[in-house]
Amino acid sequence: MTDNAGFKPDGEAGSYPAAPPGENPPSYNNSVATLNDFNSKSNLTEKNQFSLGEDPYNPFEHRDPNGASSGGALAHLLKSSLGTGILAMPMAFHNAGLVFGMCMTLIVGFLCTHCVHILVKTSHDICRDAKVTALGFAETAEKVFEYGPKGMRPYSNFAKQFVDIGLMATYYAAACVYIVFIATSFHDVINYDLGINWDVRIYIALTVIPCLLIGQLRNLKWLVPFSMMANVFIVVTFAIVLYYMFDEELVYSNKPLIAKASNIPLFFATVIFAMEGIGVVMPVENSMKKPQHFLGCPGVLNTAMITVVLLYAIIGFFGYVRFGDTVRGSITLNLPEGAWLGDTAKLLMAVAILFTFGLQFYVPNEILWRKISHKFSPEKHNITQILLRTGIILISGGVAAAIPNLEPFISLVGAVFFSLLGIFVPSFVETVYLWPDRLGWCKWKLIKNIFLGVFSILALIAGAVASINEIIDMYSDDD
C-alpha cells in the first residue's frame, strides 16, 4: 500500500450511461475524473486520429498541474513494495530452490510488470476514446467492454462489478495476512522473553483491538503520520535483517538448486503475492502531473519494478541461504529469539504493518461504501460506517484466528486474488480492447494474452490446492 496523497478510491470518476447493445457508445466530452486507480501512456487509436476534423482528445492536458512529480511517484512505488511481500521471499525460495527460484523470480517480475503496463496503456487508450481524463481499474474494464465488440457490450457492468469485488476481496484478504503477521511477531517476542506459552490466537485477538481503532480513520491525510512512522520502522528493520543475513558465513552446498515439484505452486503463489501491486501502482500513476513519464524507457514503472524485482531476488536468495529449511513466512521471524536487536526488528516491523493496516483497510471500504451508501439515510451514514468497519475487522480477525499460519495464508491469498486481478484481468481486458483487428502480426498479442490467462489460472488452481493442503495438514498436526 501507499500513502500517496493523490489517491482516490476506484470509481470516483463519476458514472457514465451504458451504451445500448448494438450501438456505438456515446462520447463523453464533459466528464471530469478525480484521479482514480490508474491511467496510461499510449498512442491514439486509429479511429480517433482520423476523426472528422476534430482535435484528438488528450487526457494528459487535463491532469492536475500540482500532482506528484515523477520522482515522487517513483518513491511511492518503491515504498509501497517494501512490506510483508519482500519478507516472504526467502520462504518462496525455500519452495523453489536456489537456481529455479532466482530465474523464476525474474520471469514472474517481468510478467507482473508487463501486466501493469498493458492495463495502464489500455486505460489511457479508452480514456481517449471516451474523452475522459482518467478511469479507475473497474471503470477501465467497464469502458473497454462498453466500447468493445458488440457481443461484449452487455457485460460492461459485470466487468466493472467483477473487478470491484475482486479488489475488495484482495484487500480484505491481505488485511487478514497483516493481522496474522502482527500477532505472530508479538507472540514470538513476548512468549520467549516473558517465558509464557500463550497461543498465537490470543495475540490475534489483542491485535484486533488497535486495528478496530485505526480502521475507523476515513480520511487519507489522517493516515499520513502513521505511514511516515511505518516507513522509518521498515528501513530500520531491513538494516537489522541484512546484518543478520550476513553475520556469518553462508553455506550453499546443502541448498537444492530446484525444489521438489509439489512445492513449486507455493513458490509462484508467494511471489505473485509479493510482487503484484495492481491496486497500488495505479493510484500513483493517476496522481502524476506528467503521466507520460510513467511508462516508456526508463519510465517510473520500469525503474521501480526493476529495483523491486532485484531486491526481492536478493533478499529471497540470501535469506534462504542463511536460514535454510527453518525459514518462515517472514524472515524477521527467523531472527534470534531473546537478542535485543532481533526483537527490536520484529517489533518494529509489526508496528509498521499495524500502522499500514489503516491504508490497507481504507481502499476496500471506500469501494464498498460507494456501492451501499445510497441504501442508508444521510443522518445514519456515520453510525453505519462505524458498525460496518467494526464488523469487517472482527470478521478479518476471525479468519486470521482460523488460519494463524503465515506461510500457507500468504500463498493462498497470492494464488486466488492476485493471480486473477494482477494477471488474468489485464490480459483479458487488453484482448477485448484490441479485438478483432489490432492484435498484431499473426495475432501475437492474442497468443501472448492466452498464455498469461492460462498461467494465471494454473497458478490459481495449483497454488490454492497446495495452500489448502498445507492448512489441512496444519490442523491435522494440531490434532
UniProtKB/TrEMBL annotation:
<feature type="transmembrane region" description="Helical">
    <location>
        <begin position="450"/>
        <end position="472"/>
    </location>
</feature>
<dbReference type="InterPro" id="IPR013057">
    <property type="entry name" value="AA_transpt_TM"/>
</dbReference>
<feature type="transmembrane region" description="Helical">
    <location>
        <begin position="198"/>
        <end position="215"/>
    </location>
</feature>
<feature type="compositionally biased region" description="Polar residues">
    <location>
        <begin position="26"/>
        <end position="35"/>
    </location>
</feature>
<protein>
    <submittedName>
        <fullName>Proton-coupled amino acid transporter 1</fullName>
    </submittedName>
</protein>
<keyword id="KW-1133">Transmembrane helix</keyword>
<dbReference type="GO" id="GO:0015179">
    <property type="term" value="F:L-amino acid transmembrane transporter activity"/>
</dbReference>
<dbReference type="GO" id="GO:0005774">
    <property type="term" value="C:vacuolar membrane"/>
</dbReference>
<keyword id="KW-0472">Membrane</keyword>
<keyword id="KW-0812">Transmembrane</keyword>
<dbReference type="Pfam" id="PF01490">
    <property type="entry name" value="Aa_trans"/>
</dbReference>
<feature type="transmembrane region" description="Helical">
    <location>
        <begin position="222"/>
        <end position="244"/>
    </location>
</feature>
<feature type="transmembrane region" description="Helical">
    <location>
        <begin position="386"/>
        <end position="403"/>
    </location>
</feature>
<feature type="transmembrane region" description="Helical">
    <location>
        <begin position="347"/>
        <end position="365"/>
    </location>
</feature>
<feature type="domain" description="Amino acid transporter transmembrane">
    <location>
        <begin position="69"/>
        <end position="468"/>
    </location>
</feature>
<feature type="region of interest" description="Disordered">
    <location>
        <begin position="1"/>
        <end position="35"/>
    </location>
</feature>
<feature type="transmembrane region" description="Helical">
    <location>
        <begin position="264"/>
        <end position="282"/>
    </location>
</feature>
<feature type="transmembrane region" description="Helical">
    <location>
        <begin position="98"/>
        <end position="120"/>
    </location>
</feature>
<feature type="transmembrane region" description="Helical">
    <location>
        <begin position="162"/>
        <end position="186"/>
    </location>
</feature>
<feature type="transmembrane region" description="Helical">
    <location>
        <begin position="409"/>
        <end position="429"/>
    </location>
</feature>
<feature type="transmembrane region" description="Helical">
    <location>
        <begin position="294"/>
        <end position="320"/>
    </location>
</feature>
